[in-house]
Amino acid sequence: MEPSVFLTHLAFAASIFCVSTAVTFFMCRVVRVMDIPTERSSHTRPVPKSGGLAVLIAFVIGSLAIYLVARYARIEDRYFWSFFLCGVLLAIVSLIDDITQTSFHLKVLTQVLCILVMLGGGVVLTRLSLPGAGETDLGWIGYPLTALWLLGLVNAYNFMDGLDGLAGGVAVIAGIFLCALAFRQSSWFVYLTSYVLIASVAGFLVFNFPPARIFMGDVGSAFLGFIFAGLAVIGAQVDVGRLSFYIVPLLLFHFIFDTFFTFIRRLINRQPVHLAHRTHLYQLLNRTGFSHAAVSLYYWALTAVQGIAAFVLVALEPGKRAYVFVPFLIYYSLYAWWVLRRARAHGLLDP
Q1: Residue 44 — pLDDT band, cuts 50, 70, 90?
Q2: Per-residue pLDDT at 2
Q3: CA dist., res. 30 & res. 245, Å (int)
Q4: Cis amide leading into 211 (omega within 30)
Q5: Residue 34: what pLDDT?
Q6: Cα separation values, 346 from 16, 118, 266, 285, 299, Å
Q7: Fewer CB within 10 A of the end CB, N or C, for the chain?
Q8: Share in percent of the chain as helix, strand, coil (round to 5)
Q9: Where are the domains of the chain?
Q10: Residue 40: pLDDT band by 50, 70, 90 thresholds?
Q11: In 3-state terms, what secondary structure has residue 335?
Q12: Number of helices and strands (H, E) in the chain?
């Protein structure tokens, strides 16, 4: 990349960062949508929420700029608009939920609608690298697999937004690695969109790092989950660089593992899986004595390690890429055992 182009991209990102910072500051001072603490909260005082609106506004501005100006960082209109409009719709419904506490079923219905639009727009996994088999045509299985991926990551990211700076910091770090990998493989749409995502979240994170002056809210967390999930499919299927689909799942594997592990554990214990609770691994770690900052920084560090592993992943033959998840699966299984043991010792779980 020529230095002039790099400087242009840097100035572009800086402008998006400034928009996000300004809107977040305005949300802190003027728009008083408050998160009132309850017995399930990890904070003890009312804090403004829905700061994710700043992420949304900055991302919309940056994405439209890419669509209108960029020459190489483009995908077909049907892919772009299904991805862009569904992300905005999901964020708006999540914002309404932040304000009015709408029903769980309405949120799920919106997510399903967005997924159907994405599938109808052609954003579907058609090929996947499988262990021992390499690149494999998925056929009709690609549709339910894509739907499950989108639905799962949207909710996983939402569930993991429970401590100051956790979801925002992970988004910035994961975005940096995704941006670098996309640049390396000439996946220009994912590269510039990641650029916008990093700047949008970083501006908000200025006010969200512990102790947070504003929370992201569902408008931010559900939106980020959808954007990451969509970029994984777009990068693998329709962007020019054809990124490995496994990159995003690896970058966010700690979020995916925590959510899946907690979901299965609550099912086994016959506890409602759709209601708010404080028994995710990161929440239990916090409740056993680790501060918001300590837990968030730990998950940030894990994101960075997973980002380094993503570079290893793309260097492997397609049939061997899934094996990169194995050491992380072992580590997180041991981590879950340790956290649960610690939580029981603190009387936070049934013996």
Answers
A1: low
A2: 61
A3: 41
A4: yes
A5: 60
A6: 44, 45, 19, 11, 22
A7: C
A8: 70, 5, 25
A9: 3-248
A10: low
A11: helix
A12: 13, 4
